[in-house]
């Protein structure tokens, strides 16, 4: 198998990017890197420490005090923020409502992109996010762009929140949050969400997790030898 093979997965929120990326990484023995979790962890730090996103000096200083790491447990990827496990907390609504603004910040994006590129220099990885195939790894040989019906995406996200004990958020609020994030992600000046010209579109509105994995594996297989 080739070394340093990057599989880039981009797409809208709650399209199952991380589900597919985790499944691919497990099947292929690759390392899974959740770039979205990195931006969410930064957002959580900013919220906790009342960092004014409009103050570049404070943003630069805050980033110096943020250490992010991924580790695997029970075949799942977990992220730590300065040594603290925050995988669940970064998925709650306070972070969801602010992550688009934080991730659109030029200084934040440049720092995260540098970290992501370092992670992919010497290992076989699967990385999902918004600009992996366009900005982080534009030369990645395998790229997917995921999408799904907005109502289906909202329902999936709502069920995920419910499963984690968050019963205060309504389905309508989740739908509106996703619509806001779609707009912010696709219209931001810094690395907007767009499909790379060579990315394969994967619409999983009507696909099961097994079906989308099979779809992806079929397109990855030629690059494994």
UniProtKB/TrEMBL annotation:
GO terms for cellular component: cytosol. Pfam families: Cytidylate_kin. The keyword Cytoplasm applies. SUPFAM superfamilies: P-loop containing nucleoside triphosphate hydrolases (SSF52540). Its main location: cytoplasm. Its EC number is 2.7.4.25. Residues 7-218 form the Cytidylate kinase domain. Keywords: ATP-binding, Cytoplasm, Kinase, Nucleotide-binding, Transferase. ATP binds at residues 11-19. One of its GO terms (molecular function) is dCMP kinase activity. It catalyses: dCMP + ATP = dCDP + ADP; CMP + ATP = CDP + ADP. It is found in: Cytoplasm. One of its GO terms (biological process) is nucleobase-containing small molecule interconversion. Belongs to the cytidylate kinase family. Type 1 subfamily. PANTHER family: CYTIDYLATE KINASE, CYTIDYLATE KINASE/PANTOATE-BETA-ALANINE LIGASE. NCBIfam families: cmk. This is Cytidylate kinase. It comes from Pedobacter paludis. The gene is cmk.
